[in-house]
């Protein structure tokens, strides 16, 4: 990894995107070790974690994780997701955190030297271009080894550095699990949702 000495670094973790990538690759993230791994290589100013929660549930499976993150060095950004039924009668969940992440990155850009984005969402390409014009270097952490690849080509090209998740995952893998099959189109569609159910810390 290319981190310069004394540069101020901020992590931006798209929780749903990292969850999907790690499960596709067959591992769970240990967030304590993830933060420790980056602290060994650079000067972390702040680590943001973004996740939406379903407000219709009395108890969210995400709550133990988000509570733990909030007390262990992460700046937690959440909002209520919305559940609805589409025209075909299928349950849908909408809870994208893209705007929240973009606003935070733009606001903190003048105070940092390097942003590390854990997401492969190509919609962030314009955001990266904007903060780069302010002098911020941007590293994207995602994977091209999933099927299909989790990272958009345009996002990967725009980044100053791309880190393959598979290559650094051993530093913060909680335990191995079997890769889960991708759901069929007829199953619940959680595209653009931050509600992937994380089952640990």
Q: What brief labels describe this structure?
A:
seven-stranded mixed sheet, globular, 7 helices, Rossmann fold, disordered C terminus, alpha/beta, 201 residues, two-stranded antiparallel sheet
Architecture overview:
With 201 residues, the protein is of the alpha/beta class. It has one domain (8-176): Rossmann fold, CATH 3.40.50.1010. It has helices at 15-25, 31-41, 63-70, 98-108, 125-133, 153-158, 165-168; strands at 8-14, 27-29, 43-54, 75-85, 91-94, 114-118, 137-142, 161-164, 173-176. The strands form two sheets. A seven-stranded mixed beta sheet has the order 5-4-3-1-6-7-8. The chain has a two-stranded antiparallel ribbon with strand order 2-9. A hairpin with a 5-residue loop joins strand 4 (75-85) and strand 5 (91-94). It starts with 7 loop residues before the first strand and ends in a 25-residue tail after the last strand.
Give a concise summary.
It is built from 7 helices and 9 strands. The protein is an alpha/beta fold and 201 residues long. It has a single domain, classed as 5'-nuclease (Rossmann fold).
Radius of gyration computed on alpha carbons: 16 Å
**Main sheet specs:** 7 strands, mixed
In terms of DSSP E residues, the strand content is 25-35%
Mean pLDDT: 84
Q: Based on the structure given, which CATH architecture is correct?
A: 3-Layer(aba) Sandwich
Side by side, the strands of the main sheet go 5-4-3-1-6-7-8
Structural class: alpha/beta
Q: What is the tally of beta strands?
A: 9
Q: Distance between the terminal alpha carbons, to the nearest Å?
A: 25 Å
Total separate domains:
1
Helices, by number, come to 7
